[in-house]
């Protein structure tokens, strides 16, 4: 079974976050080819190595060599050594170097420092404290648990969260009134391993968890694919898998799409599915951040009527993660979301049914630093048991209260849906697709978000797919 969209967004540090799902059945289908690490190709600046020319200054060659070494150390998980290598890059960068070059080195040094000297000891497993009684999910019957989550059930998911607009940021080449496109993506495979009607053991493999941003002199007009492209996307992810968190900046000015370095070509191909012609922009800057969970496989134990009780890292071997990351996975996984959406599908035509954020949070995941409460109101379109393979549920209202700690300060905001559709396939007991538009009166990003430092934002368009 594959699902195109329903997953949790990790480190989505924007208060306007919502992820939705599109799915297709894969009956016990194998995962396909082996995952491969993507090459850590140096970013191409104007006149740089991607067009076959040597850098014009020896100083550039000196820091570029240190940069490549730092990337290799990150890839190998040698965080303390990587932090020292990035420090060497910063010391060798010419005084007049572009802001994105320095920003890339500073961000990667910060990533490496945090993992070299973590605030909390990383762990390989976590026993999760049960939520308060009034925050627990509604308990399904034993027969429904067995029916919806039979051992062997497999779902592949890809989700996107997009923000477009104009803004200013001192880190960008175009520092003021630039057009930007931010996209968060998470791709994972969820398999049911055990189910006794009360406790279900899942395996989740995170194929990709990353952010991409493009800054350009052209306006970005989003167009969502009309049909699932999950098979193509998953094969690309298999080839591009990177097992380390990393931050990368790529600058392109008046370059031909056919002469790009591999990283730039890969990112523009990805964004081009949503913004046709993006590669024709006269000037464009790309930034990419790969998240810690990329390449990890987790075992998650879910108790009906209670939620996730245990999380364990299965792969890579001997891997550990921040306990806060594992705890947020537990709180935001919404592994029974298909069941709770099915309850809306069983309602009478036109009836509005509220669903708790805690029960279907996978449809509007808000990241590893955020918690959400509140509800979304859905309305059944068409009679129950209709002949259509997929039933549509329309977003009719609701609101989410978002809360997060940012540099020790608790920040809050309200997120409201403007419009949206959830497509549910009753025969497969699966949410196939969801597209939502969102509104908020407050836009802010925490330190790890690619939009951090962006001000004077206007013309915002916020969508999830």
Strand-residue fraction?
A: 25-35%
Overall strand count: 16
Gross morphology? globular
- The H/E string reads EEHHHEHEEEHEHEEEHHEHEEEEE
Main β-sheet description? 14 strands, antiparallel
- State the helical fraction: 10-25%
Mean pLDDT: 78
Class from helix and strand fractions: alpha+beta
Distance between the termini: 18 Å
What's the number of helices? 9
Q: Runs with pLDDT <50, length 5+?
A: 4-59, 254-259
Radius of gyration: 22 Å
List keywords for this structure.
alpha+beta; 14-stranded antiparallel beta sheet; 16 strands; 465 residues
Give structural notes.
By secondary structure, the chain is α+β, with helices and mostly antiparallel strands. Helix content is 22%, strand content 35%. It has helices at residues 58-75, 79-92, 99-116, 142-148, 230-240, 262-272, 323-332, 337-345, 357-360; strands at residues 2-3, 23-24, 125-127, 154-168, 178-195, 199-216, 246-253, 283-290, 297-303, 307-315, 352-356, 370-381, 391-406, 409-425, 430-440, 455-464. Strands 3, 4, 5, 6, 7, 8, 9, 10, 11, 12, 13, 14, 15 and 16 form a 14-stranded antiparallel β-sheet that branches. Strand 5 (178-195) and strand 6 form a beta hairpin. The radius of gyration is 22 Å and the shape is globular. The protein starts with a strand and ends with a strand. The model is unreliable at 4-59 and 254-259 (pLDDT under 50).
Topology readout:
Elements: E1 2-3, E2 23-24, H1 58-75, H2 79-92, H3 99-116, E3 125-127, H4 142-148, E4 154-168, E5 178-195, E6 199-216, H5 230-240, E7 246-253, H6 262-272, E8 283-290, E9 297-303, E10 307-315, H7 323-332, H8 337-345, E11 352-356, H9 357-360, E12 370-381, E13 391-406, E14 409-425, E15 430-440, E16 455-464
Antiparallel strand pairs: 1-2, 3-10, 4-5, 4-16, 5-6, 6-8, 6-9, 7-8, 9-10, 11-12, 12-13, 13-14, 14-15, 15-16
Helix pairs in contact: 1-2, 2-3
């Amino acid at each position: 079974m594959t699902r195109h969209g329903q997953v949790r967004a990790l480190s989505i540090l924007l208060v306007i976050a919502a992820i939705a799902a599109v799915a297709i059945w894969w009956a016990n289908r194998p995962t396909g080819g082996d995952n491969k690490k993507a090459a850590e190709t140096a970013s191409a600046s104007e006149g740089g190595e991607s067009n076959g020319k040597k850098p014009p200054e020896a100083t550039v060659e000196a820091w570029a060599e240190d940069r490549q070494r730092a990337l290799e150390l990150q890839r190998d998980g040698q965080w303390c050594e990587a932090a020292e290598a990035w420090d060497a890059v910063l010391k060798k960068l010419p005084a007049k170097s572009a802001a994105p070059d320095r920003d890339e080195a500073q961000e990667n040094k910060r990533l490496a420092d945090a993992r070299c000297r973590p605030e909390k000891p990383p762990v390989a497993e976590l026993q999760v404290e049960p939520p308060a009684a009034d925050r627990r999910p509604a308990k399904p019957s034993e027969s429904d648990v067995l029916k919806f989550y039979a051992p062997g059930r497999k779902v592949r998911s890809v989700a996107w969260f997009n923000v477009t607009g104009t803004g200013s940021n001192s880190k960008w080449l175009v520092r003021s009134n630039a057009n930007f496109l931010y996209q968060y993506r998470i791709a994972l495979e969820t398999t049911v391993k055990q189910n006794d009607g009360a406790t279900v053991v899942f395996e989740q493999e995170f194929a990709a968890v990353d952010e991409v941003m493009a800054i350009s002199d052209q306006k970005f007009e989003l167009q969502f694919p009309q049909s699932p492209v999950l098979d193509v996307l998953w094969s690309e992810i298999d080839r591009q898998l990177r097992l380390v968190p990393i931050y990368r900046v790529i600058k392109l000015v008046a370059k031909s799409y056919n002469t790009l370095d591999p990283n730039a070509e890969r990112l523009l191909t990805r964004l081009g599915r949503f913004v046709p012609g993006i590669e024709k922009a006269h000037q464009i800057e790309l930034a990419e951040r790969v998240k810690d969970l990329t390449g990890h496989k987790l075992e998650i134990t879910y108790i009906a009527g209670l939620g996730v009780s245990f999380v364990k890292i299965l792969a890579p071997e001997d891997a550990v993660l921040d306990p806060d990351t594992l705890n947020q996975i537990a709180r935001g996984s919404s592994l029974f979301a298909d069941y709770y959406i099915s309850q809306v599908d069983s309602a009478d035509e036109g009836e509005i049914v509220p669903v708790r954020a805690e029960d279907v949070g996978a449809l509007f995941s808000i990241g590893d630093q955020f918690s959400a409460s509140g509800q979304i109101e859905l309305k059944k379109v068409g009679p129950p048991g209709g002949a259509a393979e997929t039933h549509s549920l329309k977003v009719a209202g609701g609101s989410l209260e978002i809360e997060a700690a940012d540099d020790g300060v608790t920040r809050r905001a309200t997120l409201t849906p403007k419009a949206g559709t959830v497509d549910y396939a009753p025969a497969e007991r699966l949410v196939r697709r969801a597209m939502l538009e969102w509104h908020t009166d407050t836009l802010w990003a925490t330190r790890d978000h690619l939009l951090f430092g962006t001000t004077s934002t206007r013309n915002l368009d916020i969508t999830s797919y």
